[in-house]
Amino acid sequence: MPSDGTSDAVPAELDPSESPAGMRSAPPHTPDLPDGVDEVRVQRPDELAEVVALADLAFLPEEEGIGALVADLQADPAFSGQSYVAVADGRVVGHTMLTRAWVDTEDRLLTIALLSPLAVHPDWQRRGVGRAVVGYALARAAESGAPGVVLEGDPAYYSRLGFEPAEPWGLQRPSVRIPAPAFQWVRLPAHEPWMRGRVVYPDVFWRHDAVGLRGHRGPGRSLEVTTVTLGARDLPGLVRFYGALLERRVPPDAAMAETDWIGLGDPDGGISVAVQLEPEQERVTWPAGAGAGEQHMQVHLEIRVDDLDRAVEHALACGAELAAHQPQDDVRVCLDPEGHPFCLWVDTG
């Protein structure tokens, strides 16, 4: 179940006339009030019952128990008091809230804001209320020093509000039942490149079974890319190279001598890199030219880095070669010892 309601109650909020608030690296600003809405502000304690009723109204009949989720979240230690309402004619017509979640980074647990749920009264959908309360919440999160705001929801809707996929930034989903495109975030000014790792939801979301989707896996969703295999004339040599480059465990020499395929698993559960012995493999030509008989590249690795210069220095120390042709300023194309191109890239957005 998407815990923000965007795939059920809130898609009616989609409006092509709404423009996204450009919030990916600059501090978010509080959006203008929609017509008819008197204010967007912090929820008062005496409005909890009205907010709970609104959550149930917005999500039913597709999803049950969202009001109870809101009530339990606001009673949980993970609640920071950041609950926001849109008010029209004295009644609450829109609501969202921020709860403390955590990023399990290499060095320490890092607090990050989780936006969920988002509810808009059916009579007020398609009028910009969702955009207004989300924008208000993002601005308050930035003021509080949060490095970002994560959520799970419909990317067609939330991309209009400045959200983007979180995984390319090194944030891993709390559950594989959250579709990767639905796991999104807004990066705030306090973010730093080291803030990467598994996102951990507070326990109340798990008690309500409000994480990800159940029963939505079609035939294609049951397939998962687990490993990328590269051919090599020198299997042990390429295994050692990628083991050093990616800091993955390399088998003993004796074990590598007895096989023609070695996998280097990701200790964080990501995609593995493997090397397969190919005694007759031809070194690729990159960039591809028009020469007869050239072996053209058919696959390459894209490796995101935090510091491009430092990453290139590390790759060269491991045995890589910097390609003569470099097509982009924020990408460095390198060649591994077998000649396979791989790209080190840094996000400059």
Give descriptors for this structure.
349 residues, alpha+beta, Aminopeptidase, Signal recognition particle alu RNA binding heterodimer, srp9/1, 2,3-Dihydroxybiphenyl 1,2-Dioxygenase, domain 1, 3 domains, nine-stranded mixed β-sheet, four-stranded mixed β-sheet, disordered N terminus
**Gap between N and C termini:** 31 Å
Instruction: Describe the global form.
Output: elongated
* Assembly level: single chain
> Beta-strand level of the residues, as a percent range?
25-35%
What does this structure look like?
With 349 residues, the chain is an alpha+beta fold. It folds into three domains: 10-207, Aminopeptidase, CATH 3.40.630; 225-281, Signal recognition particle alu RNA binding heterodimer, srp9/1, CATH 3.30.720; 299-349, 2,3-Dihydroxybiphenyl 1,2-Dioxygenase, domain 1, CATH 3.10.180. It is 21% helix and 26% strand. Strands 1, 2, 3, 4, 5, 6, 7, 8 and 9 form a nine-stranded mixed sheet that branches. Helix 1 (48-59) runs antiparallel to helix 2.
Task: Set out the fold topology.
Blueprint: E1 39-42, H1 48-59, H2 66-74, E2 79-88, E3 91-104, E4 109-120, H3 129-143, E5 148-152, H4 155-158, E6 164-165, E7 171-172, E8 183-187, E9 197-200, H5 203-207, E10 227-232, H6 235-246, H7 253-256, E11 261-264, E12 272-277, E13 301-304, H8 308-318, E14 321-322, E15 331-335, E16 341-345
Parallel strand pairs: 4-5, 7-9, 10-12, 13-16
Antiparallel strand pairs: 1-2, 2-3, 3-4, 3-9, 5-8, 6-8, 11-12, 14-15, 15-16
Helix pairs in contact: 1-2
